[in-house]
Each structure stands twice: as structure tokens, then as C-alpha cells.
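3.2 Worked example (two chains)
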Amino acid sequence: MKSLIYIGMDVHSKTFSLCAYNPKTRIYSNRIEIENNMKLVKKYAYNLLSEAEDLDTELIFGYEAGCLGFTLADDIKKMGFECRVMAPSTIRIASTDRIRKTDRRDAKSLAEALANDAYSQVHIPDQEDREVQAYIRMREDVQDMVKQTKQRINAFLLKQGKQYDQGKSKWTICHRKWLKEVELTPLYKEVLDEYLITLEELEIKVDRYDTRIVEISNQERYQEFVDKLSCFKGFTRPIAMRIVSEIGDFSRFQTAGQFASYLGLTPSEHSSSESENKGTITKMGNSHVRKTLIEAAQSMVRGIPGRKSKILKKRQEGNSSKVIHYADKGNMRIQSKFKRMMNSGKNRNTAITACAREMACFIWGMATGHIEERVDTPIPVINPETGEILVG
């Protein structure tokens, strides 16, 4: 049987702190700090192997997911050693190490967590998925800049005593027309014009990125699943691509609840004895997908349950009747759930989050083929005002 030595790595952009732990002897050794240099990591590894009593010793490296991404894991694997990327929020460490936190103690804690399997391993996507992720995240960054620019325009006009009162919603065609016609002093007008030019440039960029993402989604690698996800209301192809590229292999989640938990959409809990207290969502796991699902839920809950737009019907074309039936069932269930929660006095954000969690479960079912047991059931008839199920 092979002897295992676990190496915890507390990594930073310039330095690595390393600590080796042998679970057989329960001894921590070779605790050093080195520069971010793979030659030094390789030297460290071979020194450990030369000092090992068992000639058949195997090294397992581990570090927290962070600024170095997955390239460090790739480099270590190229050396011939196993490397695991650990989800920071899942690593169980001693309370004393939380109070006294240093790089050396962090490396020791990571080595111990590795040996005791006291963590969750981060899924390492392949190179193509990483490239798509980077492109989509760039698009998200620019979209955030669009949002910030809109906020600055609103704040600027508020300071000048100018408020839009011709409708409830801003950034409609009417609101943009009002922005161009609002009366200001010459210099203030120049400031507003510059803001609007910046906003237009950013929005053009986002449109261009979305077009490119749609092109990527039509590649054989992604097309089938993106087509299926696009059957859900609120899921354009760029939104579907965000989820597909971030998650990769859905089969690693055994249940829909496990997938929702991974996204941090399940409620936290602080219960003891007969007391049961559930709080806000955990927000652990992949924040990009969680944010995407909450944004999609905002769109999904609008309108009358069961009514499909021409755009949605167009997106559903070409998919099997089973897939469309499953998606329609999910759309109606989530819309009715939102209406019930709102009618019962729930906070809107709470209702949207609950709908996003429900959406995650339907996505998992679509991705893993768990639609057979549901497609034969009739789509319910729902009261559009209350969300109450009338038939089915």
C-alpha cells in the first residue's frame, strides 16, 4: 500500500507557504516559504520523496481556489503529482487557527484538511471551458460598468434637481429621449452628454459580446444543452452559456438539492434541540451562476403563468416535445410560486431567490435527463391572479 504525504499550500501572487503532513506518523514537516516559482516547488517535492522512508510514497498537493486559478494545479500535475483545488468556504479548520492566522498556520491547516478529507474539491474545467468562462466574465464586467454608468447619470441629474416623472421605469425609449432633451447649463449638459456617450459605447460592446457568445453556443460542444436551456423563460443563449461554461459536468451532482446547495441557494440553519431557525441563503459555491439564476428569475416571474411569448416559442423550436413540456412545466411552476409568495406577503427578493432555487433544480433535471418521470404529468391550470393550481 502506498504511503501518502499531503502538502498544504497557502498561495499568493509572489510567495507560497508549504507544509507536509504524514497521516501515519501525524507529523508536520518541511514547513517553508518559497517564491512563486515552479522550479522551487519541484525541488521541494523531490526533497520530500528523498527523505521518505517508504520508497513508494505519493505526494498530494492542495491549495485554496483563488487568484492563481487552475494554472498552478496544471503545473503540479505536469510534474507527475496529484493536486486538488479546495473550495475555501468548505475547509474545516481548528478554531485556534482562525484566531491566530498566518501563512504558515494556513498551510498546516490545508495539509490537515487534505488528509482528513475535510473540504470540498473544486471542479477543474478543461481549457476550452476556461477560455469561454473568461470571455463571458469579461462580458459581465462590462455589463457591471453599464450599470454603474447608469447609476452615475441618475445621481448626477438628482444633484441638479432633475427627476424623470413621465413614467415609472427608467432607461426606456421615453426616458432616454428625456435625457437628451433635459435642460441644463452648457457645462452640465456637456457632462451629461459625455456620460451618455460612454453608456452607448459600453452597451454596443455588450451587444457585440452577446453576438460572439451566441456564435460559441452553436458549437457542437455546447449546442444541444444550450438549446434545451433556452426553452426556459428568461433564458437567452448568452445566459444559458454562462451556466453551461461555469458548471461543466452536471453529473457530479447526485440530486437537484445538491446542485442548489452548491450554488449557495439553500437557506442557512442555526438549530439546536427543539429550536429550528433558518436564515438567509448560504451564498456558498459558484457566485456567477447564482447571480445569473437570480437575474433570470426576475424575468421569468413576469407575465401570466402559461402564456408564452413569440420569442420563447421561437427559442423552443427544434427541441423534442418532452423537453418543451418539461420547460413549460418549470416556467409555470416558478411563476405560480412567485405569485403565491407575493400574495402571502413575502418580501420580493425572498420570493425571487426561492424561484432561482427552484430554477436550479429544473436545470439539473434537464442536464441529467431526469425529465422522463415528469413529462407524462399534465401541465396544471393556474389562476393567473393568485398562482393557485386549479387543475392538475
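3.2.1 Second chain
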Amino acid sequence: MKPEIALMIEGQDGLNWPRWQRIARAAEDLGFSGLFRSDHFTNPDPPDLDALELWTSLAWLASHTQRLTFGSLVTPLSFRHPVLTAWMAIAVDDLSGGRLILGLGAGWQVREHEMFGFDLLPPRERFLRFREGVEVIYRLLRSAEPVDFRGRFFQLKGATLRPRPQRPGGPPLLIGGNGPRQTLRIAARYADEWNAVLVPPERFQRLNAQLNEYLAQEGRPPEQVRRSLMTGLVFGRDTAEVRRKLSGRSGEALRARGVLIGTPLEIREQIERLGEVGVERLMLQWLDLDDLDGLEHLARAVLERSC
């Protein structure tokens, strides 16, 4: 089965209000199923570019689009307390009429944490904080009763967020990452969607099977968790444009990381392969924020509609 096709934008890579508004309108008009974006202050290496704050941009998207599914891919729990994240997610989801997907991650980028004074924590403690934060968000969204929680990093006593979500249970929770020991176990317990990042079909298939094993241990059927993939894209209308966009980079090395490369026919074939290994939603990373013409050609190439 062919996955549905959404776009993914790097919010720290020059994104500002004019670009975000143009991309959002184009994504909706061209027929993409969704629009997702990262949550970063800056890139791992200089130069530092415009970086539009995630939740402000999602609130605008909620009230200025009608159809798109949208969300964070992903918002690190190292940046915001999970109570605040849950509270904002309820508000944005309600504003959109129930179109938000709340993507959560542990955080990973050292430079931005040091630059802005956020505590990334060593990996063991980071994932403990992540697990606690996901549970806090899950319970605040899903529980009709006041929530008590006492962890190492977060504590709640009789906590309830009001108004309650208009959508029963609030927005779906997406857990993003490829870690087979930590991330997939957290996804198996709490997620409505698992999102792999930059992996080729064969590795996605292995991770997918591992997730199914963890779901069985949790007593959850496989169909309760949607499977998605965010990956890079080098798309050209012909082979000459593909070569130009590669700019001397090794296509073989990029494909080994799961990047889709090619002309319209080649990209469609690669998308079909991802559907065969279980990808249900594909977020294509669109890095040239000003290339709306290229975005229109991509839509014509991969969507089941004329643009």
C-alpha cells in the first residue's frame, strides 16, 4: 500500500514568517496530506539562520489552513516542561479542529543546548527524563481524573488541564527515533504513531518488526500504532537536474541513509518500496524553502492528483 505523502520543514534552516506562510499555503493547495517541522533553535554547525519558534508557527497553521495534518517532528522534552507542552498541544489541536500530531523526542543537538542554556543530560538520564515526560503528557491528555505523578524529573499532584481536549484523548502522540532499546519501547507503550528517521527500507523493516514485538509485550495490537518515516529527498525533473542537486555528493552514500534520489519515476518506485515494508506516512524533507516551483513539480510526481 502506498504511504500518504507529507512535507517536513527544518524550522531552524532559514524559516521565517513569509516562508512558512508560503509553504503552508502551497502544501495545502498542492494536495500534500500534511506539513511537519522540526523544533530547533539553530543548526549543529554555523552559520546561524532564521529559526521560527515551533508552537507559535503551529498556532498560525491551525487557524490558516483547513485540511492539512500537521505537527512537531519532534519537539524535545529538554526545551519545555511536559505540562506546558501538553497544554499548548491541546490548545493548538482544538484551534485546528483536531489536526495536530504531537511528535515528541528526547533532544540530541549539543550546540543549541549549550548555546541557550538547556540541560541535554547524558544519554541514560536524558531518556529517563524523556520516558517520564511522555508519561506525564500521556496521562494529562488521556485521563479524566486528576493526575498524580512522582518521578525523578517531574512531579504532579492532582493536576488537570482545562478545558479538556475537544478530541477525546487529545492529539495523537508520535514518538520519533530509531533507537531499538529505548525509543521503540517508549513508542510501544505510549505512541499512536512511531516515526523513523533517515533509514533505508531494509532497516525500517527490521525496526518495524522489533516494534511489533514490543507492542505484543504491552498487550497492544500492531494496528494501534501508525508507522511513518521522515527522510531526505534529492528530486529532479530529469537526470541532469538530479546530478546538479547532488552537487558532487555520493548518491550511493545518501541512499544508504535512506535518502530518496531521482526523477519522478524513480522517486515513485522508491516510495512504493517503502510502502511494501510498512511505511504508512512518509514525510519528505524539503530543504529549499523558496523553491515553490520545485514543490509543485514534486506534488505532480508523487501525489494521486493533478496540480
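3.3 Remarks
The CA atoms of residues 60 and 67 lie 14 Å apart.
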